[in-house]
Design brief:
37% helix; seven-stranded mixed β-sheet; 23% strand; Rossmann fold; globular
Length: 193
């Protein structure tokens, strides 16, 4: 059975639970809820669950190392399952995408995202698939405060729609390939209709 590692990035603990920086965690929590999975098995410095889907084992991983050390957990899991970076999908918040959007991206730099930076440092490369969840850039104020700030109730309601749209996007990528998913979803705003 083919195995793919899906790592959702965030920071552990109740203080960070509803912050924009935890978009990757929120995505995996939503997926686990919808699929009836318990993200509770402690391994690789994180918590994991297995999602068996259409003959593929998808290992869901939420590193519990804090964002800037995410690479340690991700690389441990890749090594354990003997997976190459092309079997890795990283879900993370993206400040350079408008709120309400999600995009797939193959490879690239880390764009200042510390979780991606850590994974790339540990792997020595960046050629893995990313599912980027747009959190928008603040008009005024500090970027760090924005990223580590909690979603407003209105944003949280909208972000639930983004998570469901991003899950559709992920499933399309798994079933029909990344280019098809990109063409269908990368220019969509999930808050509109």
């Amino acid at each position: 059975m083919e195995t793919i590692l899906i790592a959702g990035l965030g920071n552990p603990g109740p203080k960070y639970q509803w912050t924009r920086h935890n978009a990757g965690f929120l995505f995996l929590d939503r997926l686990a809820h919808l699929e009836g999975l318990a993200l509770a098995r402690k391994q690789f410095g994180g918590v994991t669950a297995d999602w068996e889907r259409k003959g593929t084992r998808l290992v869901l991983l939420k590193p519990q190392t804090f964002m800037n050390l995410s690479g340690r957990s991700v690389v441990q899991a890749l090594q354990f399952y003997k997976l190459k970076p092309d079997r890795l999908i990283v879900i993370h918040d993206e400040i350079d995408l408008p709120f309400g959007t999600a995009r797939l991206k193959q490879g690239g730099g880390h764009g200042g995202q510390n979780g991606l930076r850590s994974i790339m440092e540990q792997l020595g490369r960046g050629d893995f698939l990313r599912l980027r969840l747009g959190i928008g850039r603040p008009v005024h104020g500090d970027v760090t405060d924005h990223v580590l700030g909690t979603f407003t109730p209105g944003e949280m309601e909208g972000f639930a729609r983004v998570l469901d749209g991003a899950l559709e996007m992920l499933e399309t990528a798994l079933d029909e390939g990344v280019p098809k998913a990109m063409s269908l979803y990368n220019n969509r705003n999930f808050l509109e209709g």
